[in-house]
Amino acid sequence: MSGRPLDCCFFGAASERRSHFFARNAALFAGMAAYLRLESRNTPLLYGKNSSLSTQAVCSIIRRSKVSLNVHQSEHAYFEWHRIVLQGIWHGTVVLSEPCTDAWPFHPDEDYIAASLEDMPAVLDYVLHSVEGIRWAEKIRQHAWETLTGNPLALRWQAITGLYAVRPCPQHGPEAEASRMCSADSHAAPQGRLMKTLFSAGTGGMPLVSVLISLYNYSQYIEEALDSVASQTLEDIELIICNDCSTDGGEKVTENWLRNNEQRFCRALLIENAVNSGLPATRNATLSCAQAPYLFILDADNVIFPSCLEKHAAALQEAEDDVAFVYSQRLVFTHENRSDCHLENLPDWDIPLLTLGNYIDAMVMHRADMLKRVGGYAAEAPFDRLGLEDYELWFKYMEAGLRGIKLHQPLIAYRVHQSSMLRTTTQYKESLILQALRNKYSRYFIGD
Prior knowledge:
By secondary structure, the chain is an alpha/beta fold. It folds into 2 domains: 178 residues, Rossmann fold (3-Layer(aba) Sandwich); 251 residues, Spore Coat Polysaccharide Biosynthesis Protein SpsA, Chain A, CATH 3.90.550. Helix content is 36%, strand content 21%. Strands 6, 7, 8, 9, 10, 11, 12, 13, 14 and 15 form a 10-stranded mixed beta sheet that branches. Helix 5 packs across helix 6 and helix 9 runs parallel beside helix 10. The protein is globular and about 75 Å long. About 8% of the residues have low confidence.
């Protein structure tokens, strides 16, 4: 299994039970090479008409994975033949599954590894990273293959799985993103707005990624956001924070933190607007100062997992020329109770779907030249104060013939609290934003 670039994979219909499992263990999956795909299947699957991967693409990913996960959709613990046998054993991967009902001739801990949801993360880590675990997993993988091919049913399996021959993936869409992931071994500042510099330091190195943070009255959250940036596995980072005239002392908290951590970054910069200018203009202010080829947008009340920047940057380095940004799955948690969390399996880039509402979080990584080419974020009315400034940006990219791609891993975490955008601006004003978008980009809303 050592030659397989992916640590684990999962494909299945989204359910509350599955979402909770992957949300609780988001940090684990963010720290490994994982491909996780949960889909809301409320319409028929039609090839070329849905964002679902084809069977051939799924099998291609599984054949590049060390471990194939099987998490039951509900409490019904039936033996899932398609996932355990057709997808897993047939493609030579180790299957790690919740306990199932008996299904001759396959037996738990002989042909597949059985573990409860609570134990599954520890077992996964064991079979991936310990000598004993790797040997045990290889023994089970070989036994499962012998059970399958040495059984009278084998000829029937071969006839069925002949339908699953791997074919080349297209250059665009979800299958292309999956193929790129698996093949790896392994703007000017607004006129008239004045800014001043509060702090500037760093090692002087050349950054690969600039992390851009807009700060307004989030003094209680900003340190955790900054800590998550400092903890990144990527080394060459530029950190730029723009304070939009906070009244809670957030700029002081930020400056103190930067003084204690300045040597972590190629450059650490804290600037401040002369007057409160709103989120789009503040984002553009950080953009005007950035020096790296890739820009990651981080809100001051959210956090990112340690491998977030490294994996986003790697995706952009391998992406097609028309890809302007990369986004990932999102963990959503409540500030009051962190155990109250769930994983949002955001859809792939889909223009018709985006006309119905925004499903892509602002926490994405852009190619700097492309973001500057389309003029950055819209800071004019009505987008300057309504929120969802990122939503309008996706349409700018569409107009320029550009697009986004998705990473099927939870690499960002969104905090829900009383003053978060999800509960305030965007929740109550989305209809106004949609109407403004219809007026500005009418050709995308034909037949709406």
